[in-house]
Design brief:
Layout lengths: L3 E6 L6 E6 L2 E3 L6 H6 L3 E5 L3 E8 L3 H4 L7 E3 L5 E4 L5 E8 L10 H10 L11 E8 L2 E5 L9 E3 L5 E2 L6 H22 L4 H36 L4 H5 L3 H16 L2 H4 L1 H5 L55 E5 L5 H13 L3 E5 L4 H7 L3 E4 L5 E4 L11 H11 L6 H5 L46
Parallel strand pairs: 3-11, 13-14
Antiparallel strand pairs: 1-2, 4-10, 5-8, 5-9, 6-7, 7-8, 10-12, 13-15, 15-16
Helix pairs in contact: 4-5, 10-12
Length: 461
């Protein structure tokens, strides 16, 4: 098949329009109609409770800022308040039981309940209730990001859903869109090969599996201290007696030692596309250490190339990138990058050459003399560490560019039986969740059906 046919319906008039396209990207959210129509499945499950949201306006800062200015406050009663605009717009999330009759809830009373936590309602002046809603936190990842025909792709919430703790959802969605966007552009422009589209799921799904599970681990932190506080009287919570102070110190110490929600920089900035068929593996030296906590700046192939300011103190190396591929060369002569530019022209690969012979600090951070950067800022290849090896044959340069554009499979992926044949990747990466028996904080894997999962929000179905 060389096309996708989509039927679009005007929600107001009912008029249908049939569209023929080469590709379709499902960017239609958690309840994706495209995903369902394509028959792609999600695996995962919900948290054991639902959440009631109230979005409101209030300028009662004497109470709202009684503990100081904030962005989020997590209460030991399980509720959360979010400062949306630093002026007068707020959202509270209140946990509710699955059997709760939502129509019986008073939005203002729910705000008071969240703010008062264990001590009873805390009334404030609410100028306007903007909207209320209910949803069931749900941690899921699609079994595959691409249909068997290879022309329909999932991105964003259609491919993965997590709880807000950690703030990973938007970042992952943007990452998905950027990744599949530049790869489809390369295909449409004619210089991209089949392994380029094969690489989308291989690169992005492991990121989702790791981040979705980590968001559940962050949620578990809050669920744990909420459970500790249950049954404690308001008098005990507010007391300055030794036993109460010891209990509150326990919560404080626990939160401060499990604070990855705001400090997991390795998870957010340091992920690497290991095993990708369009990333040429390093030819020497050990891979840099990786942890969810710490970001390690590196040009290890598959990593996002590090941001560095040039010697002038104002120019970002990112500002020197081309719109598509970029070859960065720190050698005095710049000979190797010139050879890359010549070969790229012969192969019809859009490539910008950046020669930086007088940037020792940037060279130190970037680790190698010559580095090939993809349109998304991730490293496709870097030259060997030995300067003597910076002389490459035309055949080797061609191999690097052919692999980076997906016309050939990178040898490292080929050797590990990943993407050894074009368009063979629809089922690969399904088993990359082998170390996760179920996503953290969830009730376990549940068939993703609104009738089976109670209290699902309208955007989830």
């Amino acid at each position: 098949d060389d096309a996708v046919f989509s039927t679009l319906t005007d929600a107001h008039t009912g008029k249908e329009v049939r569209i023929r396209s080469k590709y379709v990207i499902a960017c239609d959210g958690a309840g994706s109609r495209v995903r369902r129509s394509a028959g792609l499945k999600l695996t995962g499950g919900p948290l054991p409770h639902a959440r009631y949201l109230v979005h409101f306006r209030s300028r009662d800062l004497s109470k709202l800022h009684s503990q100081g200015q904030f962005w989020h406050i997590f209460f030991t009663g399980g509720g959360v308040i979010i400062n949306q605009d630093e002026i007068d717009t707020w959202t509270v999330h209140c946990p509710i039981p699955l059997e709760q009759d939502v129509s019986a809830l008073d939005p203002k009373a729910m705000v008071y309940k969240v703010l008062g936590s264990q001590t009873g309602p805390c009334p404030i002046e609410i100028d306007e209730v903007l909207v209320t809603s209910v949803y069931r936190p749900n941690l899921v990842v699609a079994d595959t990001y691409r249909t068997e025909g290879g022309r329909i792709f999932l991105a964003g919430d259609s491919a993965h859903q997590n709880v807000p703790t950690g703030g990973y959802g938007m970042n992952m969605g943007v990452g998905d869109a950027y990744d599949i966007g530049w790869k489809l552009a390369a295909m449409i422009k004619g210089y991209g090969g089949p392994h380029l589209l094969d690489s989308y799921e291989i690169e992005r799904r492991p990121v989702a599996l790791r981040n979705v599970n980590r968001s559940g681990e962050h949620a578990s932190v809050h669920m744990k201290y909420v459970e500790w506080v249950k049954g404690k009287s308001p008098e005990f919570i507010l007391s300055n007696e030794a036993e109460s102070l010891k209990f509150k110190s326990k919560i404080r110490d626990f939160v401060l030692t499990t604070d990855g929600e705001n400090k997991d920089h390795g998870l957010e900035m340091g992920y690497r596309h290991d095993g990708s068929p369009v990333v040429c593996s390093d030819e020497g030296g050990p891979e840099p250490p990786w942890s969810v906590r710490d970001y390690v700046a590196s040009t290890w192939p598959g990593s996002r190339a590090p941001h560095v300011f040039l010697e002038d103190g104002t120019t970002s190396i990112f500002d020197l990138y081309g719109l598509e591929y970029t070859i960065v060369d720190f050698t005095p002569s710049g000979a190797l990058s010139r050879e890359f530019a010549t070969m790229a022209g012969d192969l019809n690969v859009p490539l910008k050459r950046v020669h930086l012979p007088h940037e020792p600090h940037v060279r130190k951070i970037w680790e190698r003399d010559v580095v090939l950067v993809r349109p998304d800022g991730h490293v496709a290849w870097r030259c060997p560490s030995s300067k003597a090896n910076n002389v490459m044959t035309g055949k080797h340069i061609e191999e690097v560019l052919m692999c980076a554009t997906g016309r050939r499979c990178a040898p490292s992926a080929r050797d590990s039986n990943i993407a050894s044949e074009p368009s063979s990747m629809t089922n690969v990466a399904r088993d990359q969740r082998t170390k996760i028996t179920k996503f953290a904080a969830t009730v376990g894997d549940v068939e993703q059906d609104a009738e089976r999962i109670r209290m699902m929000g309208a955007f989830q179905t």
